[in-house]
Amino acid sequence: MRSASHEDNGSGFRERAKQVPSPRTVVVYPCDETSLRGAVEAAEAGLIEPVLVGPAGKISAVAQKCQLDIKPFEIVNANESEEAAAKGVQLIREAKGEVLMKGSLHTDELMRSVTSSTSGLRTKRRISHVFIMDVPGHEEPLLITDAAINIFPDLETKRDIIQNAIDLCTDFMPSPPRVAILSAVETVTVKIPSTIDAAALCKMAERGQITGGIVDGPLAFDNAVDPEAARIKGIKSEVAGRAQVLVVPDLEAGNMLAKNLTFLLKADAAGIVLGARVPIILTSRADSLRARMASCAAAALYADSRRRQTHMPEA
Predict the structure, then answer these.
(1) Fold for domain 1-123+276-315?
(2) What integer pLDDT is reported at residue 3 of this predicted model?
(3) Which of 81, 150, 202, 207 is 20 to 30 A from 91, comparing alpha carbons?
(4) pTM
């Protein structure tokens, strides 16, 4: 059963997202019920303004079969998924959209167009993924990064991963986020390279190479999120036991952590890609409606923040 705190976690920033202008969202290849319904219902909730990119006949057929009203939305015809990805990215480059959203095509198809060196959406910042986890029994959302894009990130990539997550947090957290750099242990040892990276990243934060958050590590998962575990280990910091952002050593660790929380604790996991010209909503067929709505809400808040700024994120 969901706790009251669980219900409040995701709904808080979803409600805030409804107070900002709905971002024009380019939905790439929404050719099955799950992806098309997600876009339609997010629009009905006041979170996004969809532009549907894909084979017009197929999209209309899915809408008719599933009794979805897509008449209010623009459809940009593209016959194949690869063409839809390219057209979707081009619309963003032409400033005809503020958010990119994955439909029923494969993630790698979309990301190939996004990361193209000639026609993509790269910035000076490394692209990374953040899961926003709404965990039953936990008082506030947990952000896990990166569990979907960077497989074995080096130190510079981890720096961008952290900065991307911090920038996202500023849109729905009232104070600087508490960032834990995870490893298997909470002491620095040459035998575990991720602890060395954690120590270096903390020093980078001290020197202003990472800004806007409170960074500490290495921390093990238990003493990152549980105050009693941190107390027993004698760890005294603003982050230990109270972390809001969990930076994992590599994609494998992050993916397993996010899926453990999702399938064992029934957490909802919103997913968003950062570091490109616009936020990118990556959804899965296994996502719940709550998770899809949370992804759209996070992207809407981030897009609004960028709208109010006059510059793109810098490295």
Answers:
(1) Rossmann fold (3.40.50)
(2) 39
(3) 150
(4) 0.89
